[in-house]
Each structure stands twice: as C-alpha cells, then as structure tokens.
Write a structure and sequence with these properties.
The protein is of the alpha/beta class. 37% of the residues lie in helices and 18% in strands.
C-alpha cells in the first residue's frame, strides 16, 4: 500500500507533535467577487455569509478592501483573532494537539490594507503554541508587499497561502462567476512559489459543465504549477445561492458519490510524489444543503468510503 501524504503526517514529522489548523473568521473581511470590485454576488455556489456566524458580528457592515484608508474595525478584529485562537486551542488540545496554525479561512484574507494584515498575522503568531499561518485567498487579491512580508515570516514560521483554483477552464470559471481566469491563478501560484511560500491549491469536482477529463486536467495543471498541497472538494448546492436557482431550474446535476470517488482516486493517481493532501471531501450537516444528499452524510461515513476506494487502488489514507 502506498501512503497518501497527509497534512497531519507532514506537520507531525516536521514538529514532532500533533499540529492542528484553527479556522478563523474575522469580521470586516469580504471578497472582491462580492463587493463589486471584480463582480457582484460572488461565486454561484457561495452563500456569502455562510462561512461563520462570527462574520455576522460585523453589525456596522463595514468591509475592508485593498484601498481602505482606515480601519475602524482593527481593535475588534485583533480581539477576534485572539479569542478564536483560544477557543480553538481549548477544543483541539483535548484531542491531543499541541501546536497550531492560525488559519485565516473565511472570505479573502489578504483583501485589506497591508498594515491591517500585518497586525492580524503578527498577533496570531504571537499567541502561545501558534507555529504558523495558513491564509486563504484569491489570485487577484494579494499585493507583492504581502508576499514579501509572508516570505520574511516563513524564515521563522510555517507559512502557507491557499488559492482557490477550482478549474483551469475559463468557460467554467465564467459559468460559476468566479471573477478571474485560470491564467491569474497560475501566475499567482508561481509568484508565491518564487517568494518561497508553501502553496495549497483548492480544486472542486462536479462544477457545472465539467467532464471528468476536465476535472483531472485541472488537477494535473495545478500539480504542474508547483502547488505543495491540495484540497479536493465536491461541489454541493446550498440553499439561497445562484447555484440553487440553477439546480431548481434543472440546469445543474450534482456529482454523485461514485463519480466523486472515482475522480478523486484518479486525481491522486496522477499526483506527483511529495504533494500533501489536506482535504479529500467537504460537506455540511445542516438543512441549508439542497443537493447532493450524500454531502450531508457524516464525515466518518464519507471518510470510510474514501479510504475504501483508495485502498482498492493501493493507497492508504
Ligand atoms: S472567492 Fe470565495 S468568498 Fe469570494 S465569492 Fe468565491 S467562494 Fe465566496
């Protein structure tokens, strides 16, 4: 059996203890694909405030962007960083984790003035047992000075930047209202690598209009662009999204579990040795899920299925 290199195993072998990512959702962040800078409404599958109830705390509805001149939310944002990290540590410590990465997850976490980002990232890194950062963002929203700053931090800390790739086909990216093309992601990934950063790429299987061959071509291209790590997700439909309208009109058929498993195993088969797999599925277990119903099954059930399929192909996960 060949072992799939997981993020947990990579961190454990590097730091000698179990390391967990603590997800953060900081109020005041949005996305240029939502606020009208590149588009409005966001990706068709994105329920824009669905990432975390924390976002709803920004009652003033002030949102930052790259040219915000001042940030009246900074004090509250710094408090959120500290309190969310503490809460995460409390929870994960009981599960045997000893060190943590602060994972800026919700929305576009480089889409704010540089000074704000510096303060948020450095505050996260100053917390006890935080050994690094993982920053989720878009290819059109990272200034060079942020890359420089992260590159400097990476000499001391474990620094990751996560880009949504989703598909390498521009017609598909347009159909999901992604607001950027594939070239933009390719350039962003290569640039982050030039700055010496660790890059994680996100891929979605089951996008409207994509064949399995297209999904696998996206995976192959992402590997070729130099990603160090990958997250695979199935596309599911959340109520209240533009994708939900497409689904209700009969214009979108979600990927089945069998199709997803088959695509995932093939994508792992194509993966060069050394790439770290951070995620192999995603789902939600509440009534906002419209379809496919298998994405509402428990994580244990889905992981069992995935491990079974990977084992048949000779992989231990
Ligand atoms: S890039 Fe992310 S946050 Fe922005 S609209 Fe798309 S899914 Fe939502």
């Amino acid at each position: 059996m060949e072992k799939v290199r997981t993020f947990g195993a990579y961190l454990k072998s590097k730091y000698g203890v179990r390391v967990k990512k603590i997800p953060l959702a900081i109020g005041g962040f949005t996305c240029p694909n939502i606020d009208g800078t590149v588009a409005k409404g966001g990706c068709t599958f994105c329920l824009n405030d669905s990432f975390s109830p924390n976002v709803a705390k920004n009652r003033d509805k002030i949102f930052l962007n790259l040219s915000s001149k001042e940030n009246p939310l900074l004090g509250s944002q710094l408090n959120q960083v500290v309190s969310q990290i503490n809460k995460g540590k409390e929870e994960f410590h009981t599960l045997g984790y000893k060190k943590y990465l602060a994972y800026f997850q919700a929305f576009t976490n480089t889409y704010a003035p540089f000074e704000t980002l510096q303060q948020l990232y450095s505050t996260a890194l100053s917390q006890k047992d935080i050994i690094g950062l993982s920053i989720g963002t878009r290819s059109d929203s990272v200034e060079d000075r942020v890359l420089e700053y992260l590159s400097e931090l990476s000499k001391t800390y474990e620094i990751w930047i996560e880009y949504g790739i989703q598909s390498i086909y521009d017609e598909i990216l347009q159909r999901i209202n992604r607001g950027h093309d594939a070239k933009s992601v390719e350039e962003a990934i290569k640039k982050a690598k030039d700055y010496g950063l660790n890059v994680c790429g996100h891929l979605i299987f089951g996008l409207p209009g994509e064949s399995q061959e297209m999904m696998l071509n996206s995976a192959k291209a992402a590997y070729d662009w130099g990603i160090d790590s990958v997250k695979f997700h199935p596309l599911y439909v959340v109520k209240g999204t533009m994708l939900a309208n497409e689904y209700n009109r009969g214009e979108f058929r979600p990927i089945t579990l069998d199709e997803y498993l088959d695509t995932l195993v093939k994508a792992i088969d194509l993966m060069p040795k050394g790439i770290i797999v951070q995620r192999v599925t995603a789902g939600i277990d509440d009534d906002t899920l419209l379809a496919p119903s298998w994405c509402g099954k428990s994580k244990n059930y889905l992981m069992g299925k995935i491990k079974q399929e990977l084992a048949k192909a000779g992989y231990a996960y």
